[in-house]
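In the previous chapter we treated chains in isolation. Here, by contrast, the input contains two separate entities that must be folded as one system, with a combined length of 453 residues.
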Amino acid sequence: SGDSAPLNEAMAVLQHHDAVTGTARQNVVNDYAKQLAAGWGPCEVLVSNALARLSLYKQNFSFCREINISICPASQTSEHFRVIIYNPVGRKVDLMVRLPVSEGIFLVKDPNDRRISSNVVMVPSAYSKTYQWELLFPASVPALGFSIYSVNKMSGHNHQAHNLTARPKKSK
Amino acid sequence: SRVLVIENKYIRATFDSDTGLLRKIENLEQNISLPVRQGFFWYNASAGDEESPQASGAYIFRPSHRKPLPVSHWAQVTLVKTNLVQEVHQNFSAWCSQVIRLYEGQRHLELEWTVGPIPVKDDWGKEVISRFNTPMRTRGQFFTDSNGREILKRRDDFRPTWTLNQTEPVAGNYYPVNTRIYITDGHMQLTVLTDRSQGGSSLLDGSLELMVHRRLLVDDERGVAEPLLETDTGDKVRGRHLVILSSVSDAAARHRLLAEQEVLAPQVVLAHGGSSPYHSQ
């Protein structure tokens, strides 16, 4: 069973100015991070349960906790997956979804099963010593609702991205 | 190309091909153009001086000099253009880089910065800022929000309810920025939205800056009893600044909607195939 109370409590603790501004000892800062991480675990279960109930399908949902540093094992290792986007704002929102993927060409379909435009672009060389790729596609999500997009990997090489991406200049 | 440009039907951003730095932003819808030079700088943290033994620390921001030092005068750049996104990857140094990004149909410029681990082997504490310099006449005024609610006017070396004796020309003009900071000349407005609470200021006319990271070697003796110094190699921080250039008359409508979308961002969850029907009963 899911539970949002631990995250609720961790967030309450983190209202303290020490947590907001960083004016705490290192071991306290570490504890803030630990409380947040511990609170998010049962919250993921809660969100999964809610999504299963709303979509009427039970699935193994994956959350990308490190997507801000271009890490998401679920999208990087899978050839077929669905992307569920929930919009907490009370109006329709258009956004560009970015997901780390392995090199390749991908077919993305919208909630109406129509193929939509997508690109695979190289992440900046400063982010990683090895080549890394991100899939991006435009998504539209209704007010206080969710949309489900499907992604299928079509081939192992991304010729378009190789041709369109400029190589960094040598350092002067 | 000698001219480095990313653009969609709403915005054009021009870069200096010699330095790789942002040079100009244009709002193509409203026919507004503003020279903007953006780069990263760092303040040398004070460890105490003749005027005061107060050091820059976790609580206290006290640079030793008013003028910050540039992280680099130029950036190594890579240009990425596809039909959905155009990006300029700027590499300023081994510990400072940025992606300036423009999506198709987007009315703002996205600056994704990565800073750290801040090197401190030279024994200088560093407080790193992203600064936007423009020729806008702002008469020593800028605006910051308070918890995303009320936007407050800030004036150089001034407090509205008492006569200020300014002793810290930089820190004394820094204010909390919870979601946005902007400058205006009465006709156009340059707004920068943050993805987290940061400190920000406008220390020169037409200039706007946000502190993105800091690493200090001395405790400020305000109770923490530790310098703001991460263990091991230090932290690397990544965040985003969303930049809107528009006329003053419709600036609020733009930054309010965008800030709402940023604070209440859509949540992305992945699922592999193989689902089974589910009913709560």
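The two ends of chain A are 57 Å apart (CA to CA). Chain A touches chain B through 68 residues (CB under 8 Å). Compare these points with the single-chain example from earlier in the chapter.
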